[in-house]
Amino acid sequence: MTQTTSPTRSYRRDMIVAASCGVFVALMVGMSYAAVPLYDWFCRATGFGGRTQVATSAPQQGMLGRKITVRFDGNVTGGLPWRFEPEQTSIDVRIGEVVTVNYVATNLAARPTFGQAAYNVAPGTTGIHFQKINCFCFTEQRLGPGEKREMPVVFYIDPALAKDSEFDDLNTITLSYSFYAIRDPARPVADSGTSGKLN
């Protein structure tokens, strides 16, 4: 004798399956939104992908005798009519030495334009030891027609790098910035005479 499922039982089962699917979809959507901040946190904490660290002051330990060449690179993505380059292409830096370097941005357009910079260091594994005290990273910048602006970066290489045997043969670190165009923002941006804020 075959047993038939009552309509009430079938309805309950269907509702449980539908609710489970709904919870699963909501969980996946929530995880997709959380992925970016979680990845950003992971990169900031570990220096993964060449993400530099944020420092509020000079290192407690003094400078070491070992020097590393820091190279500077500047790029502009399509759609932003700027010239953007470092004032100097490289310098020799003692580990633990606080250094200020300037990048220069020039708006080549006859109208105000807006840009924002992203950055990384190479080799990517050195990001955990590259400490920035101040820079223009991720700050929206407005340049008037033909305007030229110096954008300083203040940084040091953490003395902890010298204790890591992985970096015994490290001689060069490259700090690279890329400026990309943004639309006219609705909120205030960095105007002439401001160098941006730390990020």
Q: How many domain units?
A: 2
The CATH fourth-level homologous superfamily of the largest domain: Ctag/Cox11
Shape: flat
Number of helices: 1
| Quaternary structure classification | single chain
Q: Using the 3D structure, state the CATH architecture of the largest domain.
A: Sandwich
Radius of gyration: 25 Å
Flag low-confidence runs: 34-50, 194-199
* CATH classification, class level of the largest domain: Mainly Beta
Mean pLDDT: 79
> How many DSSP-defined strands?
10
SSE series? HEEEEEEEEEE
Strand order across the largest sheet: 1-7-9-5-3
What portion of residues belong to β-strands? 25-35%
Helix content: 10-25%
Per the CATH scheme, the topology name of the largest domain is Ctag/Cox11 (Pfam 04442)
Major pleated sheet: 5 strands, mixed
Structural class: alpha+beta
Spatial separation of the terminal alpha carbons: 73 Å
Provide a descriptive summary of the structure in words.
The chain is an alpha+beta fold and 199 residues long. The chain folds into two domains: 1-46; 50-181, Ctag/Cox11 (Pfam 04442). Helix content is 20%, strand content 35%. The chain has one helix and ten strands; from the N terminus they run αββββββββββ. It has one helix at 7-46; strands spanning 53-54, 67-76, 82-86, 90-94, 99-107, 113-122, 130-134, 141-143, 148-157, 172-181. A five-stranded mixed sheet has the order 1-7-9-5-3, with no helix packed on it. Strands 4-2-10-6-8 form a five-stranded mixed sheet, with no helix packed on it. The longest helix has 40 residues, at 7-46. It is flat and about 80 Å long.
